[in-house]
Design a protein that fits this description.
The chain is an alpha+beta fold. The chain has one domain (11-67). It has 1 helix and 3 strands; from the N terminus they run βββα. It has one helix at residues 45-64, and strands at 11-14, 18-25, 30-35. Strands 1-2-3 form a 3-stranded antiparallel β-sheet, with no helix packed on it. The chain is elongated, with a radius of gyration of 23 Å. It starts with 10 loop residues before the first strand and ends in a 15-residue tail after the last helix.
């Protein structure tokens, strides 16, 4: 992990198209601004973990609850 010290209004660049700006700092809080392309998803870590856990749970539940014998298949009548 790279650890950097930045003051208010200073920036960090990641690659050529992501810029992180320190907006303000206080005793136990840092506000940052992130400039990135629209296709880059930016989430707080705790939200990322919730989405990840929910996705895994939904995937497992859908696999376990499918009764393939009860599925109805629409057949196309060929003439």
């Amino acid at each position: 992990m790279l650890v950097l010290t930045r003051k208010s209004k200073e920036k960090i660049r990641i690659g050529t198209d992501i810029v992180i700006t320190v907006i303000t700092t206080s005793d136990n809080q840092v506000k940052i601004g992130i400039e990135a392309p629209e296709d880059v998803k930016i989430l707080r870590e705790e939200l990322y973990q919730k989405v990840k856990d929910h996705t895994i749970s939904a995937s497992l539940n859908s696999k376990l609850n499918i009764d393939f014998n009860k599925l109805k298949i629409n057949k196309i009548n060929k003439r």
